[in-house]
Amino acid sequence: MTVASAQVETPVDAFKRVVRARTKGISLRAGQVVVVAGLCWIATHDPLVGLWLVVALCVRMIEEAAAAWLPSRLGWARAAPWIAAGQLLTTLSFLTIAAVPLRTPDVIRLAEAVMLLCAVALGNAMQSSGSRLATAATVGPASLLLVAAPVWVGLAGRGLSLGDMLLLALGGLVFTTFIVRLAARLHAESQALRDAGHAAAEGAQRWRMAFNHSPIARVCFDATALHDFLQARAGSSGRLGDVMHAEIRSHDALMDLVELIDTNAAAKELRGEDFARRRFSQSFLDGFCEALNEIDADGVMPPFEAELTGESDAPTIVQAHFRMTAGQGRPWSLCLGTYVDMTDSHALVRAQQVAREAAEAASRAQSDFLAVMSHEIRTPLNGVLGMAQAMDRDTLTVSQRDRLQVIRESGQALVGLLDDLLEISRIEAGRLQLSVADFDLKAEVEAVGQAFAAGAAGKRLDLRLEIDPGIDGQWRGDGVRLRQILGNLVSNAVKFTPAGQVVVRVAASASGVRLEVADTGVGIPPERTARLFEKHVQADSSPTRAYSGTGLGLAITHELCRAMGGAIGVESAPGRGSTFTVELPLRQVARAAAAAAPTATLKRRPDGELRVLAAEDNPINRTVLKALLAQFDVEPTVVENGAEAVRAWESAHWDLILMDVQMPIMDGPTATMTIRAREGLQGRPRTPILAITANVQAHQVASYRAAGMDEVVAKPIQVEELLAAMSAALAEAEAEAVQAPGALRAAS
Prior knowledge:
The protein is an alpha/beta fold. Helices cover 57% and strands 14% of the residues. The strands form 4 sheets. A 6-stranded antiparallel sheet has the order 2-1-6-5-4-3. Strands 8-10-11-13-12 form a 5-stranded mixed sheet, covered by helices on one side.
């Protein structure tokens, strides 16, 4: 059944259907004419019967010809009135037979005529049901004659009173109304039955096509016995899934309670023709029971996964989904099971999991390797750079000081290389972290300029800072990362500029802050610009290149800009220098009045003594630390591990503790936690503890602070950083002592 056939029938369509039905029954109608003519001849012996027979047959032939010819010439819409007129003429010609018995108008002849007219009206009404045009053309004349016949006999004065005449006429009208309505109702009910039959047949056909031709495995069961079994044992409040889990312990026991109705080709391919050969594992029963507890009012169970096992082949993992319906009026008499093969999906998920775990293991191994190498390399570098800083304060000849400068610069280059490797490792592992806080943007820019001023002066470059006064004050963001971005760009500019100038411009922009680093250096070819921010890419990568480097600085800078929500770009041409531009979405939070930077000093006791305890296991680092502190007239007490540091703390009072992190017997964080715990138990004032370590990644620094360390100084030690950290820690300890004088007196 198509959509069009299910729509309401139009008047033209209804009339067309009646015409075709009349055309098909032309032989039967001709036979009716002959039978009626014969009966009338027997009853009346009237010679007009023969003439009527010839005229009636001819008119019917004309109607049939018109019904076949007119629609092809005029179309059904225009031909319908003409065909209806032919039907009217045919009906009138047929009804003229009623005039034969009425030529002698008495009651008996009237009864014969009325019976004939009723039969004709009823037959035409049944044939024309559903078409008002056909009903009017074929039933209307008979209805009029049913009313006119008794009037004719009554007026002829042949034994029919006025009341009888009116009653018969009214009866004709009532009869006509009744048969027309009856025929219409019978037609509507017949049409509804036909439509329902078509719909049911089409629905069954669609379901059969969807079932048989579905690419998904589908199986149809009769689970009535399973329903009755579970209901009998469930009682009034038990859940069917729980009952099934307790009563049915195997797949075979379940299959004994269901009857297989049909399977499609996909199911046969999945499980084979012999369903007994492949069975579901225990996971199927467990999943089915859990899903059965969640069955809804429509009989739909939530999907679950199960394993399908065979005698020899590998297990198949399927997602099973069941729906229970009352196909034959009985509960669960139709159970549709759907199985989706998930084996490949699970294999892909497992492969992805293995690959992810391998990648994570490789990333961890790389990070661990870099952390270990960083620590191991920073330890000897601490000796080199520490001693270089200590020697720098000695009286040296010009050549000795030049050689010492080479040592310091080479050591700093190694430290920078280590920092770049660790930074790119964090970026690749997705562990790059930002520390958002308020910072002084102008101070950060000036610190970068100061850091590279000596290098630029050594090459006789003019390093200028052009800072917009509008940036004065506090800004919200990661000041350390901003200094790192600007430092990388200035470092490259100084490195690749043999003569001329390097200009750093900083100004507020619509998005936040705009940084520009312009130089008059060698410039970059256009074909290299597009890949300049990729790892290990340099403008000149030939074996004869004039400038060395790893090619990580700009890649790190690019990633830092992205992490901060900004962007970096470059404009350059060979021989004309380069201009790098950075846009960062920073927000100015306050304009602070300029204040003089505090000078780092070491707060001492009234007797001028500063008692410092240092825990360091490496002999070289101990020597370096002593040499650096000697420059400030500080002679530390040195121990070799955390356990000795705890014992030394217990035996005396210290102004400051410098604690290495990695030490034998007891490491620095453990020693710090032990000291902090005993401070609380003994009521001793808090002793400042600084971590001195080569492991300064963000998560490591956080763990040191969590252990109770106050500040972290990175190795290789920079004497200025060490002095600043010690000074800040001592100042904070003094402030705490002022707030708790009782504790201080108890300690002294």
